[in-house]
Task: structure prediction
Amino acid sequence: MSTSDPSAERPRENFIYDIIDEDLDQGTYGDRVVTRFPPEPNGHLHIGHAKSIVLNFGIKHDYADRADTQCHLRFDDTNPKTESPEYVESIKDAVNWLGYDWEDHEYHASDCFEQFYRYAITLIKQGDAYVDSLSEEKIREYRGTVDEPGTPSPYRDRSVEENLELFRKMKAGEFEDGEHVLRAKIDMSSPHMIMRDPLLFRILHAPHYRRGDEWCLYPMYDYAHPLEDAIEDVTHSLCTLEFDNNRRVYDWVMEHCLDADEIPARPRQYEFNRLNLGYTVMSKTKLRHLIEEDLVDGWDDPRLPTISGLRRRGVPPSAIRSFCREVGVTRSQSRVQIGHFEHALRDDLNPTAPRVMAVLDPLKVVVTNWDEDEVDWINANHWPRDIDKDETRPVPFAREFYIERGDFREDPPEDFIRLAPGREVRLRHAYFFTCEEIVRDEDGTVTKLRGTIDPDTRDSTAPDGRSPDGTLHWVSAAHGIPFEARLYDRLFGVPDPDAREDHFTEFLNPDSLNVRQGVLEPAVRDLDTDQRVQFERQGYFWADPDTSRPDALVYNQIVPLRDTWSGGEEGLTQEELAQQRREKEQRKEEQRRRSLEGKTDPAEHLDDAQRDRFTHFHNELGIDREDAATMAGDDALADFFEQALEHYDAPEPLANWTVNELLGRLNDRTVAALPLGPDEFADLVRLVDAEVISTRGADEVFHELVENGGDPEAIVDARDLRQVDDTEALRPTIQAVLGDHPDEVARYRDGKKGLIGFFMGQVMQATDGAANPELARTLLQEELEPAA
Ligand code: ATP
Ligand code: MG
Result:
């Protein structure tokens, strides 16, 4: 299965690969490439660790055909106070689940305590280390600052004999915690603070989960880590960028502890950017806090970025691997949007999750022209959009079924294409249905809808070629299985809870878990219990593996489908999205009302200078009154618009984008606070105008620009958003689609013109949505109706 075979995955080139290539070419380590993943067993792993795992184990796989590769799993267990065997087990479990195998290369730093001690004796004898008896506080004080050199400790010049004597006593347990430390004797006035006699050992009277009470002398990370690498014969020691400076100590330890002939080619440390995700926390300390304070449901709460949480949520390991490869290994630090992660999830699940129907907020519908006990078992494709897959399942249609409450509006706005009184919609895989009657309870709440189906529309097409705009999913009331759906949203309401230090829990999103009581089509019973599925129009789900409630059927939402109404405003909570949508609708409504009344003057509230601008925008540039007034009333926005105009002289589309998109994103910020400048903004609008990208693609690019800035064209390329708009490129695809569907082509030519929608769908599917719809339609018609 592809989800468990990381060795088959595409290698991702990065600067570390360049270094390894070079080492292999030069034979620095012969033909060996040995990496390691070195977690401290003080908590469960999270997706940040996954990045390191995928990098280190990925190298083992990617170089397997060129070199003698190995990746070690090393427990960096040198702090007895925070570590436990439970964490060791959970870490092993996580690495395994991600698809990796360390074979027999499991190591523990705590197995090397004796060696660390012996190397320290060597350092003391060489005059390169000394026992310091200053307090922790004094040590910090004596270290100086970035601008001032440090002061040597009064104990710095102890004799070798005295140091040896004291160090032996430290090991023998003759001192209290903190009474003495062992320090490297490097340079108290080094411009690099880290080199001002770093600590090598400290006294800690605490039982270690593996060594018990044997040791009360524990090595510091900067000393132990390079030695462990050397002891294990690691070649490339990869860590995150915060350790950039520590590399100086790393190299110092190598040079001073090891004889040149002991290790001819010593390991080297390289740093890469850590993975930071928005709207969540990643430090184990903060994660542990959430769990200990009962703010989440344990380490495997599906809202957490822990590996166990993601796993329980239903995220496939292959999706985590491809995401970790996608985000890239570089030397510049940035935050990755959750949207990127969700994108990787959808990419992974789309081809593997069969489609089924589930209603999460049921509203009953009664078909008055359908017999009480008649059931029509419809053969519905599990893969309605994939012409290469044709597994079907039986879906029962009967007199009563459920639809999504939100798919019905009594008083719908014009562009609402779902169900409303008197409206006809298509039921997915089944008939066209028209709503004729609303049934309410005493409070006026709609409890039921009644209406009729058109029996001639069973295959979702009408004999007269009419085609309702909306398609709804539904589940038969008599056959549906009741279940609980758990929908997860961002854990925090702010993008950077990590930056809020001790207050971070105040920013938890109160709506991060949404529980719904829904109904599910019966065919899910025939799927494997761990099969991930797509609930059509909703998202990807799987049955919660928690066995503590075996009687309840619970589905976790792994990731929602792209929100087609908002264009995917990633980074916002569902609540915020809904709010934004409401506001947008209200704004439009307000505008419509005002222009109908024609009385109010949109420029009424402007001052004189603004009024001049308004006149210029409206009279000379031809921008409509409302938009012109909106921009003129906000000086910064108007400046921005004018600068953009200098870059791309297209007042109307620019004004449109400024008022409808840009303004909506500002909230309380000014345009100046955006990472996006007028030139980039203009470039984006130009790309849309030139139909280089679709409006959907434009939304994605715009969102990225507002979050992180950048060059629109580069973003388009990086995300492969260019529309296929070239006639010659598209025609073969269209011919292939028609070739695959001879029956539909015949029916179309017989007069079933409504099938054009079906063909469009196939073309979009075949091009991953990249075809320019107008061109596709024209070409389809050309091919379907060869000139008489
Ligand atoms: P935490 O603060 O969550 O405990 P840590 O860095 O102390 O993180 P370790 O167990 O020491 O956790 O990490 C093991 C390895 O995983 C280290 O090599 C570390 O650099 C790497 N790692 C940890 N977090 C990330 C991250 N967010 N992105 C990439 N690598 C990471
Ligand atoms: Mg750590």
